[in-house]
Structures are given as structure tokens and as C-alpha cells.
Write a structure and sequence with these properties.
single chain; alpha/beta; Nucleotidyltransferase, domain 5; 6 strands
């Protein structure tokens, strides 16, 4: 366990190299609640894969779950991965409840995140992914987490700028 980063990194699971998926969501306060999500996927070999996006009228938790869904979508079939998030609630929910949610057809899942939860489950099952969930302390010098945070913030900034631009046209 690396105490400074608050995360233990395991390089191999059952002899397979592991992908490290850092995910984060962001939401700006105010009218229209612009938000963003971001991810950094570090494959066992090769360059990192990054992605981000934006939304309006959203919440941080919605962006957090969407970031995970988007990160898992870029993984190859049969991959082993650890999803690292600074959102403890997300990590606990996915680690402890995803199987139950699936068995109950996502009936008791928060309606705001159910679409992303279904996408997360679909990626895991259709691609036969082996996924672990790991909490990482935010703003603590973890390069992957810091980059995912920056990407999510970029998406939120773009959503806010887009709203301002559209607001100016309505007047």
C-alpha cells in the first residue's frame, strides 16, 4: 500500500496485465449546472488513452458514473482492469452492489445514474472484463487521478462556456 497515494497498485491479476482506469466527474455550481467527466486509461504497455465530455443540467455523481462507463468502453475484450476513483460512494456502490443491481434489473438504482450503471455492467459482461474498484485520495499527487480531474474540469468549463454562448443568443 502506498500511503501517500492511498492506493495499492497490482500489476498482474491471474497472470494478466492490468489496465489502470482513473475516472473523475465535475460539476459547476449555478444555473444549468454544467458538468464534465474525464478518464485516463493506462494500459500495461503503450501510451495512455484519455477522454472527456460535457453535459448541462447535471450533477457531479452523474458525471462520476459516466466517466467510469466511458473508461470501460475503451478497454479491449477480456481485459483485467482496476478502476480508480476519488469518489468513495461510487467505488463502494459498484464493488458491493453491481451484481445485485444486475440481478434486479437495476430496479433500485438511483434514476440519475441508472443509465451509466447499465452501461458499466454491459461493458463488463459483453467484453468479459475482470474489474476491481479502488478508491484513491483526491488531490494527493496521484498523476492519473489529477489528470482525470483536469479532464473532467475541462469538460465542465466547456459546458459552461457553451451555456453562456447559447444564453447570449436568446436575448
Amino acid at each position: 500500500m502506498n500511503a501517500r497515494q492511498g492506493v495499492r497498485i497490482v500489476r498482474r491479476v491471474s497472470g494478466r496485465a492490468e489496465y489502470h482506469c482513473y475516472t473523475d466527474g465535475s460539476c459547476k455550481a449555478g444555473e444549468g449546472a454544467p458538468g464534465g467527466w474525464g478518464f485516463v486509461v493506462k494500459p500495461p504497455d503503450g501510451p495512455a488513452i484519455e477522454g472527456y465530455g460535457k453535459a448541462s443540467e447535471t450533477l457531479a455523481k452523474v458525471m462520476e458514473y459516466q466517466a467510469v462507463a466511458e473508461a470501460l468502453a475503451v478497454l479491449p475484450e477480456g481485459a483485467s482492469a482496476v478502476v480508480l476513483s476519488d469518489n468513495q460512494s461510487l467505488v463502494e456502490n459498484l464493488a458491493k452492489h453491481l451484481d445485485t443491481w444486475r440481478a434486479r434489473d437495476f430496479a433500485k438504482v438511483d434514476p440519475l445514474v441508472v443509465e451509466s450503471a447499465r452501461r458499466i455492467d454491459a461493458a463488463i459482461t459483453s467484453k468479459r472484463l475482470a474489474v476491481r474498484w479502488q478508491w484513491v485520495r483526491s488531490h494527493n499527487g496521484n498523476a492519473g487521478n489529477e489528470r482525470a480531474d483536469a479532464l473532467a474540469a475541462q469538460g465542465a468549463r466547456e459546458a459552461k462556456a457553451e451555456q453562456k454562448k447559447q444564453g447570449g443568443r436568446r436575448r
